[in-house]
Specification:
- The structure holds two protein chains of two kinds.
- Chain A contains no helices and eleven strands.
- By secondary structure, chain A is mainly β.
- Chain A starts with a strand and ends with a strand.
- By secondary structure, chain B is mainly beta.
- Helix content of chain B is about 0%, strand content about 50%.
- Chain B is built from no helices and eleven strands.
- In chain B, strands 2, 4, 5, 6, 9, 10 and 11 form a seven-stranded mixed sheet that branches. In chain B, strands 1-3-8-7 form a four-stranded antiparallel sheet, with no helix packed on it.
- In chain B, β7 and β8 form a beta hairpin.
- Classes of the chains: A mainly beta, B mainly beta.
- Chains A and B meet through β5 of A and β5 and β9 of B.
Chain lengths: ~110, ~120
């Protein structure tokens, strides 16, 4: 069974704080991983891909741990605009085929 | 960047009627498009994979006779919800693979802005 599991939250975090959440995947053959951001009643938008070596984009850092089969997302100096649902996505086929979405982690940044 | 247009964004219909949702890739050719459904506080669930010029591949549990998919060109796929019922009320999102994201990165998928269907 191909599953991607996330803590649904919500995570209530004060503005300026650092927040991190993980996502576990069940299929060790998964090839590609992504974090998408979804605002309420909107379509998901790609936040960042997750590379084996880890990657950073501004305040966002993504890590992949193949041994433990999880990926993580770290947000530093959180902004009010970071409030959203963050979807973890794994691809079994290495591309658009076989994408499996987690249920998302709801993040609320509080002033 | 790659843009996918989905129309309509919101539709309210009476039970028993059919609703057609269009998904267009505006600046790239999408040989494959995907249709998802999302219920409140749930994740995206893949309904079917639409391939240009061939029959769609439906996920287990999705009725192909109820959710008709047509992918007649490289830029257009349509989803028709036939004989809609209140339990079909949901957020339907299409996506297309290919193209380059607005941030410069390669997203595996580019999403339409979704269609919120309410069946009364």
């Amino acid at each position: 069974r191909k599953e991607v599991e996330q803590d649904p939250g919500p995570f209530n975090v004060p503005e300026g704080a650092t927040v991190a959440f993980n996502c576990t995947y069940s299929n060790s053959a998964s090839q590609s991983f992504f974090w998408y951001r979804q605002d309420c009643r909107k379509e998901p938008k790609l936040l960042m891909s997750v590379y084996s070596s880890g990657n950073e984009d501004g305040r966002f850092t993504a890590q992949l741990n193949r041994a433990s089969q999880y990926i993580s997302l770290l947000i530093r100096d959180s902004k009010l605009s970071d409030s959203a649902t963050y979807l973890c996505v794994a691809s079994w086929g290495g591309g658009a085929d076989g994408l499996t979405f987690g249920k998302g982690t709801h993040l609320i940044i509080q002033p | 960047g790659a843009v996918v247009s989905q129309h309509p964004s919101r539709v309210i219909c009476k039970s028993g009627t059919s609703v057609k949702i269009e998904c267009r890739s505006l600046d790239f050719q999408a040989t494959t498009m995907f249709w998802y459904r999302q219920f409140p506080k749930q994740s995206l669930m893949l309904m079917a994979t639409s391939n240009e010029g061939s029959k769609a591949t439906y996920e287990q549990g999705v009725e192909k006779d109820k959710f008709l998919i047509n992918h007649a060109s490289l830029t257009l796929s349509t989803l028709t919800v036939t004989s809609a019922h209140p339990e079909d009320s949901s957020f339907y999102i299409c996506s297309a693979s290919g193209g380059r994201g607005s941030s410069g990165g390669d997203s595996p998928l580019h999403f339409g802005n979704g269609t919120r269907l309410t069946v009364t």
